[in-house]
Amino acid sequence: MNIELLKLLLPSSPVLEVTGQSHNCLTSDDVNAIMGYSGLSQAEYMFIINKYLDNERGINEEFYRVIKPEILELLQNKKINHKSTVKIGKLLKMAVIEVTADKCFVCTGTGFLINLSTLTKCPHCKDGIFTYTDSVRTTVLKIKPKEYLKIKKIYLELLDYVKNLEISALDKLDKVKL
Ligand SMILES: [Zn+2]
Asked: CA torsion sign, 62 to 148 to 75 to 82?
């Protein structure tokens, strides 16, 4: 099963219904079934429904609560001091934004800018995938460039973690045979 199939199976804005059956709602039974088939971890599942099914319920406080211990362990294993002036939660949110909101908003994902009659390559992205530069991150995080340099190492680890979460989830979904 791939993401396109998953989209067909689930309504675009699933609402978790604990009681009763409704045609346009994703019931907790459905959720459990998909989780069971795919073997997605809780965090992977939340990430996928947020990014691919446009469900804002996917990534919430619960998501951060679930992955925080893993993140702290990861940083500890790599001997990276996680005590920083910027909260880990804030950096994690930035990493999630970077991985989920990847479509370039300047050219709306086309990769080109149209000016009068000329077509130029959009300088803000690579083929429509937005380029999050250090300065973009600094702006979104609302911190000083000097501060960013101090947390950059931690941030890149978190970014890697979130990217791997997606890769691993997609890989598991790909292997599901329905
Ligand atoms: Zn662009």
From this structure: negative
